[in-house]
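WARN retry 2 of 3 for item q-0093 after timeout on previous attempt; input resubmitted unchanged.
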Amino acid sequence: MRGINTQFINDLKSGNLSFFLDQARNNSDICMEIRKDYVSLYYKGGSALKITQTGKRYSFRFDSKYCLNKDDDGKAAFFKSLNTRDASSYIKAFPIILSEMDSWFACHPKPERLFQHNLIKNNQNQPAILDIEYAGWSSAKKMFRLDMLGLYKADDECRLIVFENKFGNGAIGGTAGISKHYSDIVDILSNTNSRDELIASVIHIAGDKVELGLLTGPFDIKQDIGIEILFQMTGFNMKSLAIKNEVSKMHASIPARICFQDVGDTVIDYSRAKDLFA
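OK item q-0093 returned
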């Protein structure tokens, strides 16, 4: 179950980790996501820094892959030399982290991840996006990842939205298409253990983010919260019949909606979302 404890929250708010929370609050290119006993800072969709709590101490990890594949790989050695238990070292090094990631993105652009990042930063109300890359286990004991989780208030009650992001026409069909993803998500939500853990994580993440000032709450999330699936389609050719063909393969068991966005539009208007099966 995802969530962090009171000490971790206090250290982020006013302790030796407050620099990192300030970055997530005030830098539009950075978001902070809650994991199990650790937080991840994402920069433009890439994982910039992992801060893990062990007992009363913290460790820091930056993926030095972002320093490689360039003319000068010297920064990789620099990061390996840092004390992974010293917050001040990573505070001083944080501008270098962002610079190295910018250089890496210039060589390895990730437009899908950048778009997802902008969705997170620009949708903190209706819906409020809570999390990305939520991981768990299916009924078949296979690891799964959900693209995004969000909350939407309707009739004074919260509804949980499971997002599946599709970027471009090539992501509609095949082994990773709409029909397959819908079936996988239904399997996850139909499994009592996976569903209960998912909802418990959502409750903790929402509470932690409100406490950290990353979300405006409170959220009244019940264990029997209603759940919908939203297929977020970006840069899709509206003349294509690919979606219609995929839907014809699906058996509707959990409500699903579909919303179309332009690549430059990162604000989700949930009222525009259409019933996928209509």
